[in-house]
Write a structure and sequence with these properties.
Blueprint: H1 2-21, E1 25-30, E2 33-38, E3 43-52, E4 77-80, E5 86-88, H2 93-106, E6 115-118, E7 123-129, E8 132-139, E9 176-179, H3 183-187, E10 195-200, E11 205-214, E12 220-222, H4 223-229, H5 239-245, E13 247-256, H6 270-284, H7 286-295
Parallel strand pairs: 3-12, 9-11
Antiparallel strand pairs: 1-2, 2-3, 3-13, 4-5, 4-6, 7-8, 10-11, 10-13
């Protein structure tokens, strides 16, 4: 009898230890993201939430936000100048807009003016600027004469052409997050099409998501993900509401599961993504494990 009791106690202790250990691990810095590498290879860390609108039909307009675009084209490309310098539009929007307007008039490929490598907008063709080949320089407009550009995401349905907006995740309705183009993440099986969960310690909202795009940081989510984290799931997609749901303090716990919990399957609809992400969350450990991560002051 004593042996049975001892075994039960040992099992209880072991299970408690495992429960404590399943949200602990070694520090794992990925760019600006100070994360913890958990024992199963998933990672967790606190960061901000910048709102990503890529994939949305109204993300970028050739005239600008005055025509209903969610954000400026400054966030969609990198400028290459004849003097050999290059910069991202978000780093110097005024200079970028000056090049954009001139290139728009001159056909996008003039080596005496410069060119833009588009990434928030689908770009075609290439140009040679100061001896460098710049690809994706002609922005693709949507075919309805609305003036909106086609905006891509890395997770895409090959059933549709590259220049078709339907190919990409709609940031307005699909909760997706971005990750950096990092060999560290790839080695952990964390890539586009895998899943994760985000928790807002201010609103106490938990949202599961698919990794849907590549960006400059971990800590960036689609408008759909962002409004749910903010506790305002019924918000309409407007420029003002982008600012409303953006979180500039590191109040979001981002957990990236990796391939061990599965990959998103086509077609990439809001219903299918939400169902698959919820299933992946349960496989990872669900709410009970997330609670332990939230409580772990070392993450």
């Amino acid at each position: 009898m004593r042996k049975v009791v001892a075994i039960i106690i040992a099992c209880l202790i072991a299970s408690t230890v495992l429960a404590e250990e399943d949200c602990t691990g070694a520090k794992h810095v990925i760019g600006e993201f100070n994360s913890t590498l958990l024992t199963d290879g998933s990672i967790a860390g606190w960061a901000r939430n910048h709102v990503n609108v890529d994939g949305m039909r109204t993300a970028y307009h050739k005239v600008g936000t005055s025509k209903g675009a969610m954000t400026t084209v400054c966030n969609a490309g990198e400028a290459y100048l004849p003097n050999g310098t290059a910069f991202h539009g978000a780093d110097d929007c005024n200079a970028f807009i000056e090049l954009y307007r001139t290139a728009l008039k001159k056909g996008w490929k003039d080596p005496n003016i410069g060119a833009i490598r588009w990434y928030g907008v689908v770009g075609t063709d290439e140009a040679t600027i100061a001896g460098r080949t710049v690809k994706g320089v002609i922005p693709t407009e949507q075919p309805d004469d609305s003036g909106f550009f086609v905006s891509p995401t890395k997770l895409a349905d090959s059933k549709y052409k590259v220049t078709n907006q339907q190919r990409y995740l709609n940031a307005e309705v699909i909760p997706y997050a971005t990750i950096t183009d990092s060999n560290k993440l790839i080695s952990l099986g964390i890539k586009v099409g895998t899943f994760g969960v985000a928790y807002n310690r201010i609103t106490q909202q938990t949202v599961t998501f698919v990794v849907g795009d590549i960006g400059p940081r971990v800590g960036e989510g689609s408008f759909a993900l962002s409004k749910m984290l903010a506790g305002e799931p019924n918000l309409l997609a407007t420029k003002a509401n982008l600012r409303r749901v953006s979180i500039d303090a590191p109040n979001i716990l981002w957990v990236l599961f990796g391939t061990r919990t599965g990959l998103a399957e086509k077609p990439y609809t809001d219903v299918s993504i939400k169902q698959a992400a919820a299933k992946a969350f349960d496989t990872w450990g669900g709410t009970s494990r997330l609670d332990r991560c939230i409580a772990n002051g070392e993450i």
